[in-house]
Design brief:
Length: about 625
């Protein structure tokens, strides 16, 4: 028996190849011989039919019962002498048998699909039938045979077919015997080669074993030598082993620590990413109110760095006084979850923030610390303030004319009214009308604002008119109402005709003139300049009033904003400029403000002249605010 693993693999590989070769001959070569027998039988049948067709011109005459020529019958008789031929039949194009070596079959009809689909299309049909199985026409046979149908074609059409039954029992047995002889011969040769290979491998195995034995003896001698050396160096080895164990333990501990640090770093980076994405200030304290973590926003609000204060008590930190006071209120009163506080900005203004706290708990619900969230509520508080200011201004602006209207109406309705002159009554009625008109303007502004806020368009009725004529009429009216101011009109264009809503444009001019007179000193000059070109009409309203700071200029078009709200003598609810800009932009125009504090303000409006320009500009405003009329 072979003891070398390599030699065993070589022997068994040769054995496996021998078996595969025998299987290949049995499963592939032997069936190939059988297929060759079938092809040979088909070719013989085709050659015989071709002989009959060309010899007796079967492709040019009808094939019918009783119409076959004697020569065909004679040659078929010669063909019947072949002992392998079991049966021969001739069919017409309908599948009816017109001749058969078994006369009783003449006149029968072949209705099988293979005949009418394959043979009738000009293809040879063959079927191998083994003993005790059925032919294509369901006839049981007692021998192995090949059933072949050969079509007779004439002028490209099917004329009939010839069927032959060939006995291939002897041929199949011969092929089987040949295959068996091949297998036996090859098997014998393979066994002989395997035996020779085994003996050769056995000799090689013995040589290998002898070499291994020699190597073993040499190894034993070497081991004895090493044992003597090991005995003398035993103590050194024990010390070295102990040191190695300690190094291994330390290495394992360092690896575990490194993995833990890596995992902690990943968790820290994930938490830092979450904290940095939060726009609000986030401060986390432990149960002793010591700083655990905070994001960049919280560092900016508190004015400290997490790296400098981590682990320190909140009470010891140098926080802004307002923030420290707000946090103190929250911690002293647990029910007070939200506290507002203000912090100064670098610009000198202040911003309002809201501090909220929540308890940080573990999975068991035990308190681990506190989370402080600082949210910037400056905008919300500004909106609330503007709402309050608007309500106060609206109440004042509405109550003042109403009080005057009620007072003068009461005088006109009193018993002393009969003692008044007609001029006095007319003056009272005119005053009441002016105040009512003032109320109407305020209500109209509120209605326009309501439409704008709800997304509705304010009503625009466009006609063709001269802008300078309307401005001149409004200036004349203001000269009568504001006799303490000087009004100047400069016209720098030959034609300022517009296709626009004159009422809405006058509303804009009226608002600009009213603001100019409100914020100008007594005797101040209000200058109106009209100019234009081929596409635009422009007018500017300039005053010598108090002017505006850059911050006021940036907010002049905000709703409810008043340039100097501390001056309550100036009437208005802060809607005029917002509505004016909406009207100008509804006409595809543009409004621009230039002002210098203490020197005055100049507001310029540019409006397109033609209707087409208005429509195209309006579409541009709806789609994008990138294209604006130049000023």
């Amino acid at each position: 028996m072979l003891r070398s693993g390599v030699l065993k693999k070589v022997f068994f590989s040769a054995l496996a190849l021998t078996g595969l070769l025998l299987l290949y001959i049995y499963f592939f070569v032997h069936p190939a011989y059988r297929k060759l027998l079938i092809h040979h039988t088909e070719d013989e049948a085709v050659r015989y039919v071709s002989f009959l067709v060309h010899a007796y011109h079967l492709d040019k005459q009808p094939i019918r019962i009783g119409h076959l020529s004697p020569g065909v019958i004679r040659d078929i008789g010669v063909f019947e002498d072949d002992k392998r031929l079991i049966k021969l039949r001739i069919f017409d194009e309908t599948g009816r048998i017109v001749f058969s070596t078994v006369p009783k079959e003449i006149g029968q009809l072949n209705e099988h699909p293979y005949f009418h689909q394959q043979v009738a299309s000009g293809q040879v049909y063959s079927k191998t039938v083994t003993k005790d199985n059925f032919t294509a026409e369901m006839e049981m046979v007692k021998t192995d045979l090949i059933e072949t149908y050969v079509p007779i074609m004439g002028n490209g059409s099917f004329r009939g077919a010839v069927e032959t039954y060939y006995d291939v029992t002897a041929s199949r047995k011969a092929i089987g015997g040949l295959a068996l002889q091949s297998l036996v011969s090859l098997g014998a040769v393979s066994v002989a080669l395997l035996v020779l290979l085994y003996f050769a491998l056995n000799q090689a195995d013995r040589a290998i074993m002898a070499r291994d034995k020699a190597e073993g003896e040499l190894r034993q001698a070497n081991e004895k030598l090493e044992a003597r050396v090991a005995e003398r160096a035993g103590e050194l080895l024990r010390v070295n082993r102990k040191l190695s164990d300690e190094i291994a333990e330390r290495t394992e501990a360092q690896m575990s620590l490194s993995e833990a640090l890596t995992e902690m770093q990943r968790a820290k980076e994930k938490i830092d990413g979450i904290l940095s994405s939060v726009t609000d200030g986030l401060l986390v304290l432990d149960d002793r109110q010591q700083v655990m973590m905070m994001n960049h926003t919280a560092e900016s609000i508190c004015g400290i760095c997490l790296a400098d204060v981590s682990g320190q008590a909140l009470q010891l930190l140098d926080l802004p006084p307002a923030l420290k006071e707000a946090l103190g209120k929250v911690f002293e009163d647990p029910e007070q979850e939200k506290v507002d506080f203000e912090l100064p900005r670098s610009s000198g203004q202040s911003r309002t923030l809201q501090a909220r706290t929540s308890v940080l708990r573990d999975q068991d619900g035990k308190g681990l610390g506190t989370v402080v969230l600082m949210h910037d509520v400056t905008t919300e508080r500004e909106v609330e303030r503007m709402k309050s200011d608007f309500l106060a201004m609206a109440a004042h602006e509405l109550s003042t004319p109403l009080t005057a209207i009620m007072g003068y109406s009461e005088l006109l309705a009193s018993e002393n009214a009969n003692q008044m002159t007609d001029d006095q009554k007319k003056s009272f009625v005119s005053f009441i009308y002016d105040k009512a008109e003032s109320l109407s303007c305020i209500v109209d502004d509120l209605l326009d604002l309501s439409r704008i806020e709800s997304g509705q368009e304010i009503s625009i009725a466009k006609i063709d008119f001269d802008l300078c004529t309307n401005i001149r009429r409004l200036i004349d009216a203001h000269r009568k109402n504001y006799v303490s101011h000087r009004f100047e009109l400069e016209v720098e264009c030959s034609s300022c005709r517009l296709f626009a809503d004159p009422i809405r444009i006058e509303q804009v001019v009226e608002n600009l003139l009213s603001n100019a007179t409100k914020y100008s000193p007594e005797g101040g000059e209000v200058r109106v300049i009209c100019r234009g070109d081929d596409e635009y009409c422009r007018f500017s309203v300039c005053d010598q009033g108090v002017g505006m700071s850059p911050d006021q200029q940036s907010r002049i078009f905000e709703k409810f904003y008043r340039g100097n709200s501390s001056n309550t003598s100036q009437q208005g609810v802060g809607l005029g400029m917002s509505i004016a800009r909406h009207i100008v932009e509804s006409h595809a125009g543009h409004i621009e403000v230039t002002s210098e504090l203490g020197k005055g303000t100049c507001i310029t409006v540019a409006l397109p002249k033609s209707e087409a320009k208005v429509d195209s500009k309006r579409e541009g405003i709806d789609d994008s605010e990138e294209e604006q009329a130049p000023v």
